[in-house]
Amino acid sequence: MLLTRITTIELRRKLTLVFVGIGLIGLWLLFRSYNPYEYDFYPHCPIYVTTGYKCPGCGTQRALHFLTNFELSKSLQENFLMIVSIPYLLFGFILEYLPTSGFRETVRNRLYGWTAAWVALGLIICWWVVRNMI
């Protein structure tokens, strides 16, 4: 019974990785092939449409398009915070799938705990204010 439970969990984790990988490849192809400036099927930001102010996520689709086409400077101009947060998010995803150890738990608690969440929220709010002042 225990052996079956362990293999089921392992299978679920592996399937999750496969489906996330397929989804990321699909998004990469979408953003690489279709420029948000030229196609209207991308959703528009409701905050920007109603208020005229950019939210923290405004420009993410354009930034991803430029990033997938290896135009880093244009990507950073569209949404700096999103681009610089990609390594942090990827590291957190990879950390989740590493074998459980004391090191993993220490890093996870320090970089992805409650304090980190509050710091991230503060950075997002600061980015929201600053990008509308520029």
Description:
It contains 7 helices and no strands. By secondary structure, it is mainly alpha-helical. α6 (102-112) packs parallel to α7. The longest helix is centred in the N-terminal third of the chain and has 32 residues, at 2-33. The radius of gyration is 18 Å and the shape is globular.
Question: Short summary of the structure?
Answer:
The chain has 134 residues and is mainly α. It has helices at residues 2-33, 46-51, 60-68, 72-78, 80-96, 102-112, 114-133.
How do the strands and helices of this protein lay out in sequence?
Elements: H1 2-33, H2 46-51, H3 60-68, H4 72-78, H5 80-96, H6 102-112, H7 114-133
Helix pairs in contact: 1-3, 3-4, 4-5, 6-7
Q: Distance between the terminal alpha carbons, to the nearest Å? A: 60 Å
The residue-averaged pLDDT reads: 89
Secondary structure: helix percent = over 70%
Global structural class: mainly alpha
What is the succession of H and E elements?
HHHHHHH
Tell me the overall shape. globular
Based on DSSP secondary structure assignment, what is the total number of beta strands? 0
Tell me the β content: under 5%
- Report the C-alpha radius of gyration, rounded: 18 Å
Q: Low-confidence spans: pLDDT under 50, at least 5 residues?
A: none
Describe the biggest sheet? Answer: none
The number of helical runs is 7
